[in-house]
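seq as requested:
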Amino acid sequence: MITTLKDNYDSTSLFLTLSAIFAFIWYAWIKPKNPKTSALPPGPMGLPLVGNLLSLDPEVPAYFASLAQTYGPIFKLKLGNRLGIVVTSPPLAREVLKENDVTFANRNPPDLVQNTEYGGPDIVWSPYGPEWRMLRKVCVLKMLSNTTLDSLYSLRRREVRKTASELYGRVGSPVEVGEQIFLTILNVITNMLWGGTLEGEERANLGVEFREVVTGTTELLGKPNISDFFPGLARFDLQGLKRQIDGLGWRLDHIFEKVISQRVKIEREGVNESNKDFLQFLLRLKDEEDSQTPLTMRHVKGILTDMVVGGSDTSSNAIEFAMAEIINQPEIMNKAQQELDSTVGKDNIVEESHIHKLPYLQAVMKETLRLHPTLPLLVPHCPSETCVIGGYTIPKGSQVFINVWAIHRDPSVWENPLTFDPGRFLNDNKYRDFSGNDFTYFPFGSGRRMCAGVAMAERMVVYSLATLLHSFNWELPYGEKLDLSEKFGIVLKMKTPLVAIPTPRLSDPTLYE
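struct tokens:
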């Protein structure tokens, strides 16, 4: 009898214990905790602790687009200890980036940015406030304004012409297009930043090192990091990502230290006023003591990092995608070259002043950024307070992803959205621009945190494309097939680098000198 009672007691205890555990899980993960949680957007059910992490697909924008088909244009994902909100429609993007611009102007930097010496306080990741406004003002007014860019045209021209000359020397041989353009844009940016501080072989070695650092940095920032989903584990660096980016950050800092020390030395010896550059301006601004938000050396390095990492990789990727799409459809190359021949002629070279007379080539760039936006999810936004979007509660501190990649491929907005067709920007969509005011097309984002380098990117992409297509015909190596597959990350790249063979098409060989 006593044994039977004991067995019944043990069975009852086990039942109550299991019931309590089940109830806890149900209340914690399934049943809403309070009225606010009940107003969260819909989304796939997650597992305890990990949430939806195990179901994430490496091709994140495409995966998010497929989830939107089930859960609607705004949905939630539980990413470990973090809540992610994904927006996949123009009206909701407008609510986030325009109607609630100030609330969503904040950023929640990934662990690799917050807890390493990589870069410094910068435009991309700094929280919205006086420091960020000071940094953006410095860059936009002093380096990226149309006035400044106009004054530096000769610099861009020299580097683009140098690339044309190098390609002429490799006529008939396969060329890795993305790498060639990356080095061209990098030379333009570093010339703008610190002019002729480094020359000759030292400058060439610098280009190679920057290529390795920039590529490595963007790849690491695009990898899923356990430390972002479970901040309490960050100190253990379980994937070794912090160690890797610390190594890249050290190399980048070493380059900046070398350039800055040489610039300071030149300043002490008496600067040549005819050779001013952006670094010189930053170092002088740093020494001003009357500023309410002083510029520090960490700010200087953060700005330099933004310009080098952000400016070179994104523009070169866009040009590589454009060239791949053009080579894939020879009729597009013919149209672009006919426009160039009628505007520039085969006995002349392309100048930036020709760009506004090349509507078809501008349409090629717009279509490239529609189909292959360089930041497919933009940089995630982080609301500074709890707010309501699309009738749903978006909690303070959540990560908000705007799926530009999916919006640009929405069949309810775009006819034949998966077809590369520049002509669409010559007809009904010709007034779509990069201002961020049209939420069916905003490859550079919108609102306060939209890309500060739009004017620079627009000039470099169109001018580089014009030069490549005007100076050369392009074809794939014999027997090769073009792979337009995308490699997703924080920056969109071609999964297989474009390799193509140039052949000259200008009438006079001296035009390549």
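Confidence is low (pLDDT under 50) at residues 1-9, 14-20, 22-38.
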